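ARCHIVE CARD
Drawer: 12
Card no.: 0347
Subject: one protein chain, sequence and derived structure
Cross-reference: see card 0346
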Amino acid sequence: MADSHFGYWRRIQGVAGRYNAGIMTMIDNIQKHITEAMKARDEQRLSTLRMVKTALKNREIEKMSPLDEKESQQVLSTLIKQRKDSIEQFLKGGRKEMADKEAAEITLIESYLPKAAGAEEIEAGVKAVIAEMGSPTIKDMGTVMKNAMARFAAGGMRVDGKVVSEAVKKHLT
C-alpha cells in the first residue's frame, strides 16, 4: 500500500516538474517579489502583490488549468480598470489619500504588463486601419474598433479600449 502511494506522488511530481521546467510564470515571478517585499518590510507593495497573486490564482482555479501569459495580462488589465474606477469614485467622494493609494497600486501592477501604447501610436494605428478599410463611416465604427484592437493585440501593444474608441470617433467624423 505504501509503495503505491509513494508511486502516486512521484508521478504527480514528475508531471509538475515537466510542466514548469525552466519557465518562470507570472505567478512565480510575483511570489518572488512578495518575498522581496516581506524582507524589505514594504507593506503597501506586499499588500498589492498578494492581491495580484490572489486574482491570478482565482482565475487559474476558474479555468481549471494554468494561465498563459495573455490570460495573466487580461487579469492584470482588469485589476487596473477596477483601480481606475475606484480612483474616480474616491476623488468624487473627496478621498484623495485613497485615490493616491489606488494610483500606486496601478503603477505596481503595470510593471508586470508590456508597455502601454502612447497616444501617437494609437492615432497612427487607427489611421492605418481606416486607410486599409477604405473610407468607413461612423456606422462602421464597430468594425473599425475590432480591426484596430486586433492590430494592437497582434503588435503586442497594450491599449485602453476607451482611448481607441475616442480616436476612432475623432477620425470617422
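Annotation on reverse: The helical segments are 2-19, 26-40, 43-63, 69-92, 96-110, 119-133, 141-154, 161-172. The CA atoms of residues 116 and 173 lie 26 Å apart.
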